[in-house]
Amino acid sequence: MAGGAYANLTLPGLLTERHLTGRDAAFATELAYGTTRLRGQYDAVIAHVAGRDKIDPPVLDALRLGVHQIAAMRVPDHAAVAATVAVVREAIGTGPGGFVNAVLRAITEGPYEALLEQVAPATDNTDKTLAIRYSHPEWVIRTLRQAMKTCGRDPAELTALLAADNTQPEVTLVARPTLITTDQLSQQVLQRTRHEATPSKWAPSALTMARGAPGDLPAVRHGQAAVQDEGSQLVAWALAEATTTQEDQGRWLDLCAGPGGKAALLGAIAKERGAHLTANEPQAHRAELVRHTVAQLGDAVAVTEQDGRDFTGTFDRVLVDAPCTGLGALRRRPEARWRHSPRDLTTLGPLQRDLLRAAIGVTRPGGLVAYSTCSPHHAETRLVVQDVLAKHPEVSVLDAAQVPLLAATGAVGPDGMVQLWTDQHGTDSMFLALLRRG
After folding, report:
1. 333 and 403 within one domain
2. Residue 183 to residues 190, 191, 207, 211, 225, Cα–Cα distance (Å)
């Protein structure tokens, strides 16, 4: 999104500001997310039809929105063309409006899939063609293929993963313990939508909502529940469920807590068990998001604003949900595929290692560290853990198969670490390593 904004953080505020609800909000959400996901494919089709690659950014944005309505939404072609041209003429000018009209009308002359076949033939499995057809940068294609190989998956399954990245994820809710039960939340969903929410596969706090807007639920409005990917929930549960080798004294830490989803769930579990969570977030605006998210948990959670690399104290359980490229969350954060590049790893890699070292430093003997990323990139996952543990012989990898919730996923590798996959598990492609300090 423009200005480096995150769709999942920016769009809800825009919908509220413009008083969009119900079907209008759903339409705007699909238009924003869908266009962002398939931007690469649409750009190639637009360039092919227009006969040129260079198009002014505002005009190109409008064309992308128009093409998404034509190719992927149940909008009549004439309505999609007319609405897009009207916006361009009002916001940009008459001349660009004529250009947009000509390009979109040309796209509607035949089946969109036939046009896509001309640009990116389905039988061509080169990275360049896959990048267009599945709307992923080529470096991401290569990265995901290598990640699958590293985890023992058949690279031939890559297209299934790419296709999963381009699907609209189901709405997964989290029922925060001590605030609301899954049964109570399910009843609210049924009352509001007349459709039952179904228990999700892996996390005991997760429910899948088939219809309706989550914001209409009282539990969501009051912070008792929220929308949260099941893989994200599973990370919090895994840290809470794994056993320490000495008595848990109830001091837990989320070292990188913003914007607060995992902190709220981990804090709710801590409250249920008589423990206390410190949720740390160095950036002030993100720390405010954390405070808002955990507000209903009272004094069970304390929010701090420190550089996680310099954090001090002693804790039984420490979560390091490290900043990463987000390549495992491309369904929900579609802009991540466009905003990052391989160069980002030169910054993120050292930071991830420093944060994991700091987490180990504040973990008491017998305590646990959960290192997680929403990326399957080897350089952000196993390589980070291996590098750090090479200098910390007192720390070992806890076989995640010892945690029943994780064992049930079938995602635990021979090294005891966990890699979830969007196409296989229906979650973000989360990585998790549980570490125990000896």
Report:
1. yes
2. 11, 12, 10, 17, 12
